[in-house]
Amino acid sequence: MTETLIIEAKEDTPKIVFDPANRLFQISASSLPENAIGFYEPVIKWLNDYSVNPIDLTVFDFSFEYFNTASAKQIAKILLILENIAKEHEVVINWHYKKEDSDMLSSGSRFSKLIDLNFNFVGY
Amino acid sequence: MAVETLNNLSFLTLLKKFEPAIFLYNTILYYEGEVNHEITKALTFTTEKHLGKTNAKHIIQKKIFNVMVECLQNIDKYAVEFAISENNLTRKGAILVSENKDAYYIVAGNIVNQKQIEILTVVINNLKLRKKEDLRFLYKKQLKNGMLSIKGGAGLGFIDIARKTGNPLQFCFYPLNSDLSFFVLKICITK
User: Fold this and answer.
1) Whether A89 contacts chain B with CB within 8 A
2) Which of A100, A123, B12, B139 sits at a 20 to 30 Å CA gap from B172?
3) Which of B118, B36, B47, B106 is nearest to B74 (CA)?
4) Which residues does chain B have within 8 Å of residue A32's beta carbon, measured at their own beta carbons?
């Protein structure tokens, strides 16, 4: 099984927890890195490695406070890998958003229309 | 005017001369100078903190934060570079955040070259004509394009600003010499 990937949040980069043994796949907090491609490179590499031999059900939690457009492109890449995994395994996306933040809900809804995956929208 | 002498140019003077109306409202923040990632964080987080103490709605605060990040990151990535010393280049920009009783206003200014004027004019004018539904479509298209190439998806920031603010973007170019112009982008976020 792929090793755990944990990246702690900074003020401009999100927290990443990828822990297949405990069935945790989480991206949270804010994402406006100086170099979005550079920040997400190891994240995307990890997911590509994971996609070779994923667990039977991957429940992926996005709970962004904020992300910029440069990050949006990287999030789309992540979703494409998950879409690929979903061809042979089960994948569920939980898109968490603050109830008063309708922009974050519509961002998630846009991704869900772009990519063929099961999305749950979870207001908190 | 050579690029080397542009670092003495006052953006505030240019804004007051060409866009006097933007100073009619209550200023929340004005900054002019080098724009890099550290500055972008400092300006956006400071404004966010300030707005958090006011009665501004959470969603409006986030829209302002969002627009500021995209404007400043555009300057950080694309503005024409200045020489501040022999071996040091920097990108300079101005940003004004103000409000009146109806809306918040964000004005960003930086130097662009002729080639950028052509690109910006096409990109922004393209957005002006579109309705919200079209912007959604365009965003999706750009996101898909962006997935395919490393530097692709240019203009996604402008689409995002237009979509989130729901108001048309206003912009102007004020020529400084045969190649360089002062680019001013004006965004209104209704309260």
Assistant:
1) no
2) B139
3) B36
4) 40-41, 44, 69, 73
